[in-house]
Each structure stands twice: as C-alpha cells, then as structure tokens.
Write a structure and sequence with these properties.
It is built from 1 helix and 2 strands. It has one domain. Helices cover 7% and strands 10% of the residues. By secondary structure, the chain is largely without helices or strands. The protein has a two-stranded antiparallel ribbon with strand order 1-2.
Length: 83
C-alpha cells in the first residue's frame, strides 16, 4: 500500500477487507449446523464483501452487534443522532 493524502493509506489493486468482514473463501466453511452456506439463500456478494441475509442471521439465534446490513434483531451500529 502506498501513502495517501489523508490519515488512511491508499490501497491500489487489493480488495478492501473490513474489520470482521467475511470473505468468499470463508463462505466455504460449515455454518453452525454443519451445512455449507448457500449463495443466494444465506449470503450474497456486494463489491467483494460477503453480506449475510436476514434469514441466515435469524437462524444464528442472537445478534452479534456488528452492524450487519440485514440484521433481523434491529441492531443499528450508527449513532442515535444519525439514524
């Protein structure tokens, strides 16, 4: 990575991996029920980031409080004043 003009380095050519992001390779791992994740049913890819569906997240039994895009438990990671 090369330095940028701000506090964050410029990433040239490598996908951005966010903290706690799941990669497509991780999708090949078995879920808690020991059945593989199914693309479209359990997750989809958005700009190289794996996004879990509300159906899959609800099957996990509790909220992870990581700000999942389709959180079925109503968790919102944004500060109260920005909702």
């Amino acid at each position: 990575m090369e330095g940028g003009s701000g506090p964050f380095p410029v990433n040239r050519g490598n996908p951005v991996i966010r903290r706690n992001a799941i990669t497509p390779k991780d999708a090949e791992l078995p879920a808690k029920s020991d059945t593989p994740l199914e693309k479209g049913r359990d997750y989809y890819l958005d700009a190289g980031v794996l996004v879990f569906t509300a159906r899959y997240l609800s099957e996990q039994g509790s909220c992870c409080e990581q700000g999942c895009r389709h959180c079925p438990y109503g968790y919102d990671v944004r500060p109260e004043e920005k909702r």
